[in-house]
Amino acid sequence: MQFISQRMWPIRRLSLGTRTQTRLFNNRPPYQRFNNKQKFWQTRTFWYTTGTGTVCGAIYYQSHLEDSPTGRRRFINVSSAEETQLGASAYMQTMATYRFQIVPHTSPVSQYVHKVAHRIIRAANIPGSWEIHVINSREKNAFVLPGNKIFVFSGLLSVANTEDALATVLAHEIAHVFARHSAEKLSAAKALQLLYIFVSLFVDPSAAEMGRSMATLLVELPNSRQCEQEADEIGLEFMARACYDPHQAVELWQRMQENEQMVPQLL
After folding, report:
1. What are the pLDDT digits (tens) for 52-110?
2. Which range, of 93-97, 161-165, 170-174, 259-263, averages the lowest pLDDT?
3. What is the pLDDT of residue 262?
4. Beta partners for 132?
5. Which among 177, 174, 158 has a CA at the least distance from the CA of 236?
6. pTM value?
7. Catalytic one of 82, 83, 139, 173
8. Which residues, at least 6 apart from 264, have a Cβ–Cβ distance to it below 8 Å?
9. What HEC string does the chain produce?
10. At CA 139, angle to CA 135 and CA 174, rounded to 5?
11. Is 209 marked active-site?
């Protein structure tokens, strides 16, 4: 009998072990029983990290709010030095692109543009030195880069054919620099880029593309319209200070709009 008991012991031990494993298996939660792992966004770590990041982001956002010249609250996390550096880089690229089309400063057209621009600059009371260039091109455009760099395409003078009209365009573009609109748009772009990266890494890469489209419709386009309206308001004030007629601005923008509508017909 002792011999039979010894022979049966491995079988009994195997039976006990099987019952123990079955009991432990049945006591596990369902998701462990079927070896289903939690998704990352369902874990506490994700929500703790998200909550902490949201609070820190809100504090950072609030600490970088400032008033525009018209009193509008906006988010800016780009320093004036960074903005000037970006303007200097854009200036070098522009000069390289149009190096054979820059009108000499001694030409009557360049002197005319200089006269109107300096009159606006003195009225705006913006510190620093300014560089003004006229580009020999049929394009009807003008822009001012951060760091006080003004570019006027000679084709613009066919539409802005009076000093008041040219002052309207220059005052509007100088107002963009005065209000630091380039820094505002760059700050918004940086914040949205961080949001895209977070969504693509932790939620769904395809959702980032949808978020980029929604951001364009809900953030970037309204922000661009606000900047343009603000530049109009500040530019008209600069014109009045420089003793130009702000009422001429309406006629100029109408001519510009009519000219844009004519371009497809000419093509």
Report:
1. 767 776 776 677 688 888 888 988 888 889 889 989 999 999 999 999 999 999 999 99
2. 259-263
3. 40
4. 150
5. 174
6. 0.71
7. 173
8. none
9. CHHHHHHHHHHHHHHHHHHHHHHHHHHCCHHHHCCCCCCHHHCHHHHHHHHHHHHHHHHHHHHCEEECCCCCEEECCCCHHHHHHHHHHHHHHHHHHCCCCECCCCCHHHHHHHHHHHHHHHHHCCCCCCEEEEECCCCCCEEEECCCEEEEEHHHHHCCCCHHHHHHHHHHHHHHHHCCHHHHHHHHHHHHHHHHHHHHHHCCHHHHHHHHHHHHHHHHHHHHHHHHHHHHHHHHHHHHHCCCCCCHHHHHHHHHHHHHHHHHHHC
10. 65
11. no
The single-letter code of the amino acid at 169 is: V
Distances (CA, A) of 231 to 23, 140, 236: 75, 19, 8
Using an 8 Å Cβ cutoff, are 87 and 146 in contact?
A: yes
Would you place residue 111 in the very low, low, confident or very high pLDDT band (cuts 50, 70, 90)? very high
> Are 237 and 140 a contacting pair, CB within 8 Å?
no
Q: Which two tokens stand for residue 37?
A: 């792992």
